[in-house]
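Table S2 (text version). Query chain:
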Amino acid sequence: MRIGVVSYWFNRGQATVGRQLRGILDELGHETAVLARPTKASFQRPAYIERHDVWDQPRVTSASRFLIPADEYLRWAQELELDAVLLDQNYQFDEVEQLRARGVRTIGRFVWEAFREEHVPGALRAYDVLYSLTRCERDRYRALGIDSPFVAWGCHPELLPVSAERDPSVVTYFFPGGYLSRRKPLREVVTAFARVRDPRLRLVVKIQGARGESEAELELARRTPRVTVVEGDLPTRQHRELMASADVCVAPSRWEGLGLHLYEATALGLPVITNDRPPMDEVVHHEDNGLLIESLAVEPAFSGVPAFDPDPAALTGAIRRLADDTTRERLSGGARRASRERLRWERTVDAIGDLVGVAR
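Corresponding structure-token output:
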């Protein structure tokens, strides 16, 4: 089949999933192409598409703007004679419906934190298949009347051989902040970390950018002893080596879509500290590849999905527990087992093969 992928195309979760989906489809013997969607004008990097590093690939077409005109979709699909298109977080229901009307099979996915009941009619009209990458996502769509096939995401094999030297005299915790938003409880993590006075402990806060209220949280991190803030977008290899050089991934979240960093940390053998809430608990199993901590309900996400702060005492306790070498080594071994077994990439390849088969 000839299959297109419509996605952001730079170092962000959605685009990483899109790039890895393309790799799966290539592996399965399909011909693939990408329609790269520029970022919104309001984004920290407006109208952005990456052309270097892992994003330097053949048959990548740049769309003219974030809201891609219908004629661009149709011309792209017609010129490449596409049989199907995979789209991520694409609410252009009228435009996607035109692709479907031309005989192109439309396969879509939305993160549950953004998808609302009002989107259901348009999504059902525009898409042949709406799939889920987490079980909680699938269950929510089922409650909305959508039969959503489940694709089990896993640890990509490109992560498994990554390694980096670690300083045995310190224990480094890695906070994956991305583009800081309300979803990421940086203040709570920094405060909990500062309560653990073990002088061996270090916290690396890695962010790609911050705005508004997040700037104040970032300033707190900069002022806190034993905390290092690494800002800006790094080349893929350098970012992975930075993460691999840590000992623990501390990644509580008020809510998550997929939580790609949880799979990355597991593939790198890092025990993870996160909330005992879905979908985080689908990746991290307590006392196996990490520690799941209690959390406190806060104002829901804009779609109505429940949101939770990490419990301060539980977060502090988990950081303290993973300072213990024996506990950390045990959970690191669990992470490596999980990446080879229950989160193995072959499951994902098989599930995408079935998904594309369903959409024929």
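Notes on Table S2: Residues 2-154+345-358 form a domain with the Rossmann fold fold (CATH 3.40.50.2000). The two ends are 9 Å apart (CA to CA).
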